[in-house]
Specification:
The complex is a heterodimer. By secondary structure, chain A is an alpha/beta fold. Chain A is built from ten helices and ten strands. The chains are: A alpha/beta, B mainly alpha. Bound molecules: fe (ii) ion (FE2).
Chain lengths: 279, 131
């Protein structure tokens, strides 16, 4: 049977993709960030998941304002990197896993999560930047990806508690898939940041640290954090952090924190990163 | 009719909720159209004619053509859409934030390098009114 071995939390700041693609990831500005992921690349090379289940959000790229699904599950054979206005990122096309996607889609709906099914979808930096941070610049991504796009752009995003429950439902779905697959779950986005209007540039490192501690050790409690707290304390775009709770819900109640990295800034954003293993 | 919202008192912040999204629909659809190269070319060739395909208000149209970034958000734009218009003008997220905060690119970048805008004094509108 398929099983979940580990979880990765990772910011998906677009500037990190640009830094990698343009060969400046070793400079004074980006160097310390990419250094924080060296451990992660080594860990990933040993972990070798068969599939990555990747929770991210689209930033008004593949989804325009016509349709705004709260939870959209990728069920395609492949996902091309999208043009976000600067030309598509020069990274490999992301391969999907259609059988696993189809199984999860069906299992989630029968478990009361009425997700949207995406049979065609381009993916933006939200999905490709975490792959870059964890794998570097391979010719091909080393394993297929099942993407879950979450609406965190138009208020309200799904509640943290709902994301946490969805993670548990995803776990049930994966564990009932008959093939023997090792799955790593990614929760992406965050940490504290505000991109818009006069309060842009807001960073709240103390809050970010508390958020990570709760996520790792007291997820039930942390999943109750209300939207107003995210928006006020972590910035209007900090609400992305609810997506980390989908990942956390898919893991055991108790996990081992293998790696933690935190850095300010990348562009407008605090970069946060965790590797958690089911024990 | 004005609905009171719990996030109204966050200073310098426009929460893109359902009301804002409804107001900004055509503006945002215009912005996202510029994601694609052929549309960028068409906009470049004739901005006024291109933008008139999108039935936005004259305020929105004016703000879009004049790159009035904060006004665009107030009129229903969302940053992930307006950033597509910014990208068209060669402005990245950090430069855009420099413009919206009135700090300019250099001072904004320096603020971020020294840890970003502190949360202290920036939680409530009342803290800004006192200044
Ligand atoms: Fe994001």
């Amino acid at each position: 049977m398929a099983y979940i071995s580990s979880g990765v939390a990772c910011s998906h700041v677009p500037a990190l993709g640009v830094a990698s693609d343009s060969g400046i990831s070793n400079d004074d500005y980006y160097g310390p960030i990419f250094k924080g992921f060296e451990f992660s690349k080594d860990w990933m090379a040993k972990e070798k998941p068969d599939v990555i289940f990747l929770v991210y959000n689209d930033h008004c790229t593949a989804f325009d304002a016509r349709v705004i699904p709260t939870f959209a599950l990728g069920c395609a054979a492949e996902y091309a990197p999208a043009d976000e206005g600067w030309g598509p990122r020069p990274v490999p096309t992301v391969n999907g896993h259609r059988d696993l996607s189809a199984h999860i889609a069906q299992s989630l709906v029968l478990d009361s999560f009425d997700i949207t099914i995406m049979n065609e979808m381009e993916v933006d930096h939200g999905l490709t930047v975490p792959l870059t941070m964890m794998f570097g610049q391979p010719e091909q991504w080393p394993c297929p990806v099942v993407p879950l796009a979450v609406n965190v752009v138009q208020y309200p995003a799904p509640l943290g508690s709902r994301c946490y429950a969805l993670g548990k439902s995803i776990r049930k779905a994966i564990e009932s898939f008959p093939e023997n697959l090792k799955v790593c779950v990614f929760g992406t986005g965050g940490m504290s940041h505000q991109l818009q209007h006069q309060r842009a540039g807001l960073i709240n490192s103390a809050w970010d640290e508390r958020f990570m501690n709760l996520l790792v050790n007291e997820p039930e409690k942390g999943s109750q954090i209300e939207h107003i707290e995210y928006m006020r304390e972590a910035g209007s775009e900090g609400i992305e952090l609810v997506m980390w709770y989908v990942m956390r819900g898919a893991l055991n109640d108790k996990v081992n924190e293998i790696h933690r990295f935190y850095h300010v800034p990348a562009s407008n954003t605090a970069v946060g990163h965790l590797i958690l293993e089911n024990n | 009719m004005t609905i009171q919202k719990p996030y109204d008192d966050i200073p310098g912040t426009i929460i893109f909720d359902s009301q804002q999204a409804a107001k900004g629909y055509h503006l945002n659809q215009f912005c996202i159209s510029l994601r694609l190269a052929p549309n960028r070319d068409a906009f470049k060739a004739d901005p006024e004619n291109y933008i008139d395909q999108f039935p936005m208000t004259s305020d929105q149209r004016h703000a879009a053509l004049n790159q009035d970034w904060n006004r665009l958000l107030e009129l229903g734009g969302n940053i992930y859409y307006t950033s597509k218009l910014a990208a068209y003008h060669g402005i990245n997220f950090q430069e855009l934030a420099g413009l919206m905060t009135g700090k300019g690119s250099t001072a904004y970048r320096e603020m971020m390098i020294s840890g970003g805008r502190s949360i202290e004094g920036n939680r409530y509108q009342s803290e800004w009114d006192d200044k």
